[in-house]
Structure formats: structure tokens, C-alpha cells
Amino acid sequence: MLIAAAALTIPGPPAATAADLKKVYGAALGGDMARALAILDSIDVSQLSPKDSTARECLKRTFGNPPVHEDLPPKSGQILDAYRTYWQTAMLRRAPQADAERTLLGTLRSILAIAPTDTARLDDVSERARLAIAGERLFALTGVTLPYYELMIWRTQEPTTYHVKLPERTIEVHVVFLDDFVSLGWAGYATCGRAHSGGWATQDSLFALKSAY
Questions:
Q1: What is the C-alpha separation between 176 and 87, in angstroms, rounded?
Q2: The pTM of the whole model exceeds 0.70
Q3: Where do the H-state alpha helices sit in 30-121?
Q4: What is the pLDDT of residue 4?
Q5: Which residue of 41, 53, 169, 206 sits 20 to 30 Å from the alpha carbon of 158, by its own alpha carbon?
């Protein structure tokens, strides 16, 4: 499933720093954190606003340390750890992407106790991971947001129905508002929440992040 990232807003002055920050987030959203961090290191820290200084520290902390373990039910926490380790490995170019995906697959198989005789591939196993998270009373989205395998996790959601008047008739639009996110996917992880999906659609409903609505 391809998910469009939300629009990115960068403060204006000073112009040179703003341009550099756009390059940082551009590289991050391209999935290349090695390049993003190299650009970040070249920026004059004294020219950053307090907000951008905080963002810089978050990026350095996120990709300079092992993934932070979240306070989640057992399998959900392990699954999120596995994805964040995969994202770090792939985005920091510590291993080829195919190798990082094989490692993710092996880790998920172990967490989910998948039998060695079960030859399920990562697409299927990631769906099983989603179901395991749902079994622990959380909500999740898996799949692929190019170029990486995706994982979004949230705690609450609220369905709402709107009646929309069209020239010919009135239709019902079902919207599910999602809130209390633990993981905003790989784009959110790569930008410390600066840019991420604002929602997606299925045949039956629209799913929207409440904070981005």
C-alpha cells in the first residue's frame, strides 16, 4: 500500500539554513538517512531556531542509538522494535535493503512463532504481524510505502459518518479518525514526526489521522 507523506513545512529565515533543512528532510523522505545526517552535520547549529535545534537533536538521537522500546503489549512491542531496527539498518545503509528485509522477516517469524515448514514471505508475515497487534487491542497498518515495509500503530479510533450533498443525491461518507499514535510509519520515524501519512482510503471508508485532519 502506497501512502502519501504529509506536506512538509520548514521555517523561513535564514534562507541558507532553510534550504539545508529541506535537503535533510528530502533525503530522509527518500529513505536515505545516511545522506540526511551528513547534510545535518554540515549545518551551522548556531543558525537554527529552537524548534529546528530540537528537531536536529531528535534526528541525531533516533539514528545514533538503538531503537527505543515502547511501553506496549509484548508482541506489539517486539514487532515495533523489529521494524525500527529494519528501518535504521536500511536507511543508514548498514546493509543492502534486501538483507535488511530478510532480517526483518526472520525476526518477525521468531516473534510470531511461525513454523520452519511455513514458507510465508514478508508480505504475508507482515499481515500476520498486524493481526497479532490487533490481538493485543491496538490498531495497525502494514504493507509497503515505497521504498520500505511500513508499520503504523495507534491506540484509538473513532468512526464517523458524514452526509455529503452532491448535485444528484446525498451520499454517506464513512470516516475513521485515528489517534494516539505509537508509530507514524517509517517516514514519521525518519523525520521525528515532521512528515508522515495524513490518511488513506479503502473501498468502504476514509481513514484520517485526527491530528492532521
A1: 28
A2: yes
A3: 33-42, 50-64, 74-91, 97-111
A4: 44
A5: 169
